[in-house]
Amino acid sequence: MFLKNRLxxxxxxxxxxxDLNSYLSSKRKQIDxxxxxxxxxxxxxxxIRDAMKHSLMASGKRLRxxxxxxxxxxxxxxxxxxxxxxxxxEMIHTYSLIHDDLPAMDNxxxxxxxxxxxxxxxxxxxxxxxxxxLTLAFEILSSVNAADTDRGALNRLRVINTIARAxxxxxxxxxQMQDIAAEGKVLGLEDLKKMHRLKTGAxxxxxxxxxxxxxxxxxxxxxxxxNYARNIGLAFQITDDILNxxxxxxxxxxxxxxxQSRGKSTYPSILGMEKSKKFARKxxxxxxxxxxxxxxxxxxxxxxxHYIVVRxx
Amino acid sequence: MFLKNRLxxxxxxxxxxxDLNSYLSSKRKQIDxxxxxxxxxxxxxxxIRDAMKHSLMASGKRLRxxxxxxxxxxxxxxxxxxxxxxxxxEMIHTYSLIHDDLPAMDNxxxxxxxxxxxxxxxxxxxxxxxxxxLTLAFEILSSVNAADTDRGALNRLRVINTIARAxxxxxxxxxQMQDIAAEGKVLGLEDLKKMHRLKTGAxxxxxxxxxxxxxxxxxxxxxxxxNYARNIGLAFQITDDILNxxxxxxxxxxxxxxxQSRGKSTYPSILGMEKSKKFARKxxxxxxxxxxxxxxxxxxxxxxxHYIVVRxx
Lengths: 313, 313
Hints:
Distance between the termini of chain A: 34 Å
Number of helices of chain A: 16
Radius of gyration of chain A: 19 Å
Largest interface: A-B, 55 and 55 residues
Oligomer: homodimer
Mean pLDDT of chain A: 90
CATH architecture of chain A: Orthogonal Bundle
CATH class of chain A: Mainly Alpha
Largest sheet of chain A: 2 strands, antiparallel
């Protein structure tokens, strides 16, 4: 235990030397460029493309794709397939936002500082733009070049499967169902954790696992980084809940105070604000401890864990 | 030309000996059983699973999955991966029906003899059940067993890519966008063909191509069966339009006369009923001519082409 704590402090020191802002901004730029190329090369000039672009290219944190790339870096080297996989994950995240924002669900009007897709276009177009982003993600994940060989193809199938499972009816979609069912009800802490583990945690985990597989990580590394991802995924959601109370809507590009007005159970509403913040910090520390088993190639993952709880949007 | 006609007559004779009804009913049973197992094994007991099952397990023609299996049979032998791929295609077809039926789109209340998903459940659940079926399809297509090797994995990526492209923003989804935009407008024949090629033709083509790839068909066979699929896909849509005028709603399990009441352009509305029927027969004959290059393992495909235009639902 003492050793672990010492290692963890070493991680924190390492992390502080790492320039996270430059890293995040360079990765964001790389991902935004790749997303722009993918959307322009893979869809014809049409209303559906405009709607997909509207939601996808609005400024986002790009947390999931950056985690995918950073996980690949932590175990090996990232490559073009990693960037494309990272982009596919961001497309799936964006599709889920478009559908969650629909009138039949959260009925939100503002997202990433822009009108939501069904406000900017219409409901039918928003439903189809979400469907199209989800489908394009799998098209990108499965694209085959003339030069590709069977070698590595099985790992690519594993990545597709990991992402599909996380996004599906035992992951993100079940989480959204539980979220809708919970509106107006008071949840216990365990139910809230379970719901968020599905709704946001599953795709964050899949992002990290996919990157680890593509970086040729071994089984042990995959297991450890899955643990890392689980901790930061939960910390991410707690911070989201905190920002919904204390955040600045101008910085965040979305409304605040919405959880309370909708009667949603949140970490602050169940644990109180101070205990929620402490819980998030504990989870980040647990995530950092897992990373003690990795060398300095995991510095981006260390810095991201820290960023998760100190971000203001 | 004479030879081609003679070969085509030979195909028709061959086809008549083939017991299509037994074939279709045995394949439907096989696919229904596999779909039931997949949905029970891959989703927890929950509302979202009930909604997915409601739409997926309602009696359907299962045309696309049967075409996938029949194409694999025509070039080689179908196998377990072919049945699973066939099931995934049916899930994608069902997701598209659930979303097309939504109030924001066609606002239909009856489908496959059952209340549509948003009527039986609610709108949010129907949107998410569609999303979940689409996602589960890709989970099934990418599932990897411990015994799997890299060999064949590249072909499986090709199949996923073929299906995703057909279902996406340059295929089925763009077709649905064009269909919505066309409501109340009078379309020309070429625009109508283009719209249907995307909306229904693309996934029918992908079903046949996927089966051909999984049956280890060569490039020439893929090209020929793609041509076959294009012809029967269009013939299928024309027959759908005809049945929307002349069909029996009790047999079809859905309302008739809806195209006219919505002011939709259809083949009968543009060409007239007799010319539409003649056009559908010509397309089937063209499809049969393509099959002259295949032996009697393609009999199911021959019989299905015939069935496309004589069906009553």
